[in-house]
Design brief:
Elements (H helix, E strand, L loop, with lengths): L10 H4 L6 H21 L4 H18 L5 H4 L3 H23 L5 H11 L3 H24 L5 H12 L4 H8 L3 H26 L2
Helix pairs in contact: 2-3, 2-7, 3-5, 5-6, 5-7, 7-10, 8-10, 9-10
Length: 201
């Protein structure tokens, strides 16, 4: 991707620059949660997931400067998920061979991972990214919303209440509920676009 003076570098472009130390801390802050979710997707327990997340971050740190999206012909998160998959696979393999009779759970997880091809990795990467970014966007904007806007939107997220029931609960006109929802969705969509622009390649 070419950059002009009018194009702001994304976080991923910044971390390729070894002189930009702050960008790596920012990357860890934003991507650790995503990496952890993907690791857990591969049926790794909580304790091992924490250690594996650190291993993945080290591998990304070493590999990011030679990563070329054009050569890889894939999105960064697909490359990242491949790094995660290979890290988890090697970990499970080492665990399973130490004592195969006692490590049935590792063997089962390893067999499941054998079925995960490149297309599946891409599918997992995209699905979890959309969920992760939506949650991150909500976390970023919710404190800036008015109390009623936030309450109504959270009501929508946690239940299947109709607009009329929400209006009744909060003593509002049904039209007002629709307006509040629309305002939040607009703010949320804007933040999702911003995060995707900032965090993606």
């Amino acid at each position: 991707m070419k950059n002009t003076d009018n194009t702001r570098y994304t976080l991923l472009q910044k971390i390729k620059d070894p002189k930009n130390e702050n960008s790596w801390e920012e990357f860890v802050e934003y991507y650790s949660g995503y990496i952890y979710v993907i690791i857990r997707n591969f049926r790794v327990d909580i304790e091992d997931s924490e250690d594996l997340m650190q291993d993945v971050l080290i591998k990304v740190w070493k590999g990011i400067r030679t990563y070329d999206p054009a050569a890889q012909r894939s999105k960064f998160r697909t490359w990242l998920c491949s790094v995660i998959r290979n890290t988890v696979f090697n970990f499970l393999k080492s665990k399973s061979v130490r004592n195969s009779k006692q490590n049935v759970c590792y063997n089962d997880a390893l067999e499941q991972m054998d079925l995960v091809n490149e297309a599946e990795v891409d599918k997992i990467a995209e699905k979890e990214w959309q969920n992760y970014i939506a949650n991150l966007a909500w976390k970023n904007i919710k404190d800036e919303l008015s109390t009623i806007n936030r309450q109504i939107f959270e009501e929508t997220l946690k239940s299947d209440m109709s607009n009329s029931l929400i209006a009744e609960k909060y003593e509002l006109a049904e039209a007002s509920v629709r307006v509040y929802k629309m305002r939040v969705k607009k703010a949320l969509s804007k933040e999702i676009v911003r995060l995707n622009s900032e965090l993606s390649w």
